[in-house]
Amino acid sequence: MSDPSSPSGFPIGDMPVMWLRDNCPCAQCRDPRSGQKLFQIGDLPAGLRVKAVAAAGGGAGQAVEVVWAPDGHRSAYPTAWLEANRPGTPGRRDRRTEDGKELWTARDLAGRLPGARWEDYVGEPAVRARMLESVLRLGFMVLRGVPERDEQVLAVAETFGHVRETNYGKLFDVRVEPDPNNLAFTSSAITPHTDNPYRDPVPTLQLLHCLVNDADGGDSGLVDGFGAAALLRREDPEAFEVLVRTPVPFVFRDADTDLRAHRPLIGTDSLGRVREVRFNNRSISTLRLAAGELESFYSAYRTFAELLLRPELRLDLRLVPGDCLVFDNTRLLHARTAFAQDGARHLQGCYADLDGLESTLAVLRRADTLEPLAELFEGAGAVEYLGEPVSMAQHMLQAGALAEAAGAPPHLVAAALLHDIGHFEGDAVTGRDLMGGNDNRHSHTGADWLGRWFGPEVTEPVRLHVAAKRYLCAVEPGYYEELSSASKYTLEVQGGVMSPAEAAEFAGLAGAGDAVAVRRWDDGAKDPLGVTPGFEHFLPLLGGLLRG
Description:
Largest sheet: 6 strands, mixed
Structural class: alpha+beta
CATH architecture of the largest domain: 4-Layer Sandwich
CATH topology of the largest domain: Double-stranded beta-helix
Shape: globular
Distance between the termini: 31 Å
Radius of gyration: 26 Å
CATH class of the largest domain: Alpha Beta
CATH superfamily of the largest domain: Clavaminate synthase-like
Strand order of the largest sheet: 4-5-15-8-17-6
């Protein structure tokens, strides 16, 4: 196509015509109720091209109108949508793959377990959205104070989706049974595993509601299978590839059931990203491969199994009556320590699916607004910024303005604007704790909170911007000397300069470049005489990035 630009200065010349027309939002092209397309791709005219471009609307409603040839159709595209979806900019990641997750070890979750009181979860949509987001991002949530009554676990599942009935019924009781058909119904220790690997499709969510736990032992454990798979890929890429390409026969049989599925232990998508882990030694049947392939598989299988048992990977939890653990069964491996049979331990469980949870979260987000962010900038943001000559709000607005002036893509402008939001907790500024020598982990808490509205393209540079300072101090001569006194002080509280090994690991992260960019705007956003636009200036850009 030619290289026309809108009168507002937004170029569309680099946008493929078929893609642009296929995304026409008008009522002729999309059902106004469902948003579903009313045409087939083959219905678009041959020789499609842009005939004219003009501005439409104004302010936050500014749009670019395109007149198409040869049919004369008119399409109006909000500029915020064009900016957020420009070809080549990061799109919404597949949240089912490792790219859409925060990978973790037990140490990473110290002081920030994703949990909430049941009454807050059911009564406050924002709390429920935050918890459901935690299941998608971290793989689990723990609800406390859930009523200790029979079948309550089904009511928990129904707050975000539908119960997935299996051969175990709508729910199952995890307790010692006299004639168990599964080791789960004994008092034996169970090593990290995923459930139902012999199903196709496998239940993607599992819920466990504690009714009684007076036994000596019986603690629960979680391991991030995606994180473990990524670790295997780094340490032993050959073993990783063997486990990705080798289908494994999983089988479950009892008097009434015969279930089978052939899947690799580590499942990836077409781009090679980890999307599923199926790991259950109790359910692996006999592999029928050539002898050399069997040797390669068992070597890789053993390596992965030993890796999964590393203590630093396992998060240990003791569920108490009223606790309900909800976790991603395609990602997290769960385990249990042995317990004394003479002690009472009774959990009720059920299965559900991630697509229902994602749908519920999307609906909650549609009803949400950016007003809480605006209120922080106008209220708590007016206070001091950790020993710097600007307020918190001035600092963040300056960072956003610097990113915008540098021509950064919308997701990085948003990350720069919001990078220090984790210093706020209501009207309190937790950054004062940081200046007092206690790391408030504001990069993580801020990213977690922003996940209420935005995807990883915004939240992950925020999550990594503190690590980026530690990294730059390690690899860039003179960087440390340019830091302000307050920033040098907080550097030590936040872990100090990275070691060479830490710096190499950081540099290998997918979001490292974005985080470094945000860090540099962060460093430059401390000018007491700087003139910046208000928060409302960024609302159209933020609106275009909202998840839904």
